[in-house]
Amino acid sequence: MRAAVLYAWNEPFKIEKVDLQDPQQGEVMVKLAASGVCHSDLSIQRGVLPMPPPIIIGHEGAGIVEAVGPGVTSVQKGDHVILTWLYSCGICRDCGRGRPHLCDKAAMATMTGGMYDGSTRFKVGGNDMRHWCGSFSEYTVVPEQAVIGIRPDVPLTSACLVGCGVMTGVGAAMNTAKVQPGDLVAVVGCGGVGLNVIQGAAVCGAEKIIAVDLVDKKLEMAKVFGATHVVNSKQGDMAEQIKGLTDGKGADFVFEVIGNTNVMQQSFQAIRRGGAMVAVGVPPIGQELSLPAFSFPLEEKSVLGSYYGSPRFRYDMPRILDLYMAKKLKLDELVSRRLPLDEINTAMEIMEKGEVARSVITYA
Ligand SMILES: [Zn+2]
Ligand SMILES: [Zn+2]
């Protein structure tokens, strides 16, 4: 079988013949059907995210179970599945609270590349190869907790997006902010995740959804996903423009989906009393954010951090697909290019240029 291997930061992926071990106790082998190409993959390639090469990555995968190891009970060969890129143990305090994305027992395994015990299942040229999720490969092996069974009538080429971008965006609105009918919402940054915050807020019943971006083409796309108003932040102060559309007081929730501390400050200015700025975009490690401290006690303003859309994977991912099948959430419109694994480097290039909402690698 073949996989895209990242050997060094800032180098192209190399398509290699790889060996994959059978799934062991509690593990599942998945034959990938499709993998979205996410901005985090580019951040890993560029060395911005601390996940050192050599490594096999790709983390927005969907496919069909090929084999299960001993003890696996939730899926069997032939089942359609989505992969989660955060492995969770299912039994620790945070998992028990319904916050598996904050499971620290499994976070290290996820982030260092390998299984729970640090071992790897891939070999390249006879040597162990670390792997994170591994959806840029024809097959992968992951812990059972990272495999979510889904209904078989959803096309896997669309379902894969729920593994990262859609969950992150829709979940920020549904789970982190818990947007209510009638809420006034602004979404700053209308890339792949931002569009999903917009449609998440729409399905929650937000009264106004103000999309903010610098690029008119992205604002047009935002309307397709449910934005009721658009603001081009080139045309004046963003916070003032948002306030102008929300009775002069600001929005209940402003989602920052860029990861820029200046934009986070402006987003905080654009929330009304009692509102929250929801931090979805990931700023570079080490940066600090300065905010008016009196606004917390005297205006009840707050900041909510949102990681992966605060998911309960086994509940939220199937639910998002049900909403898609009921035509209440869009997935197909997010996909602007489909490419084979051999063109993984093209997929990364066009993403870096900002040419696509999402490209999807499809496997035969
Ligand atoms: Zn991602
Ligand atoms: Zn846990």
Largest sheet report: 7 strands, mixed
Distance between the termini: 12 Å
Provide a count of the helices: 12
CATH superfamily of the largest domain: Medium-chain alcohol dehydrogenases, catalytic domain
CATH architecture of the largest domain: Alpha-Beta Complex
Rounded average pLDDT: 95
Q: Radius of gyration, rounded? A: 20 Å
Bound molecules: zinc ion
How many E strands?
Answer: 19
CATH topology of the largest domain: Quinone Oxidoreductase, Chain A, domain 1
Determine the fraction of residues in helical runs and give it as a percent range: 25-40%
Oligomer: single chain
Global structural class: alpha/beta
Domain count: 2
General form: globular
Task: Tell me the strand percentage band.
Answer: 25-35%
CATH class label of the largest domain: Alpha Beta
Name the poorly predicted regions. none
Structural commentary:
There is one protein chain. This protein is an alpha/beta fold. 28% of the residues lie in helices and 25% in strands. It is built from 12 helices and 19 strands. It has helices spanning 39-45, 93-96, 104-112, 156-159, 165-176, 192-204, 216-224, 238-244, 261-269, 295-299, 313-325, 344-352; strands at residues 2-5, 14-17, 19-20, 27-37, 55-56, 61-68, 80-83, 122-124, 127-131, 139-143, 147-149, 184-188, 208-213, 229-232, 251-256, 271-279, 302-305, 337-339, 359-362. Strands 4, 6, 7, 10, 11, 18 and 19 form a 7-stranded mixed beta sheet that branches. A 6-stranded parallel beta sheet has the order 14-13-12-15-16-17, sandwiched between helices. Strands 3-8-9-5 form a 4-stranded mixed beta sheet, with no helix packed on it. Helix 9 links the parallel strand 15 and strand 16 (271-279). The longest helix is centred in the middle third of the chain and has 13 residues, at 192-204. The chain is globular, with a radius of gyration of 20 Å. The mean pLDDT is 95. Residues 38, 40, 59-60, 164-165 line the site of one zinc ion. The site of one zinc ion (ZN) has 8 residues, from helix 2 and helix 3.
